[in-house]
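sorry to bug you again but im stuck and you know this stuff better than me. what follows is a protein written twice so to speak, once as letters and once as structure tokens for the fold. id like you to explain what the token line says about the fold, in plain words if possible. anything you notice is useful, everything is just below.
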Amino acid sequence: MYQELPATEPSNQQVDKYVANRIRERRIALGFTQQMLAQRIKVTYQQAQKYERGTNRVTAGRLFEIARVMGVPVSYFYEGIEQGIEADETGPKRHHMDLVRNFSRIENAKHQLALRQLCRTLADG
């Protein structure tokens, strides 16, 4: 019959929110605006925004379309979920997204290269 999930298992709502955050992360990494994503998956801007916030659940068919447009397999949106659900987007994760967003806006290839080299140098200590 019905068996309750252990407390460590994420709820459907947590999974939906996780997928929503992964959609947002990928969109930002690609340098897409929400409007650009909406146009490519043929929904309104408001609907794309609701998908990213986790307000509206993304259907399997729509997730397949989002994955196709973003150049990733559907499984991309579930990667890392086994390690746990991160409900909030603060701290290092938020900083990484800001860094990716700003880097994608740099148009000069030499500036991008210089920034990558600087990051590598700083990371190596």
Summary: The CA atoms of residues 5 and 11 lie 9 Å apart. The chain has a mean pLDDT of 85. The domain at 12-124 is CATH 1.10.260.40 (434 Repressor (Amino-terminal Domain)).
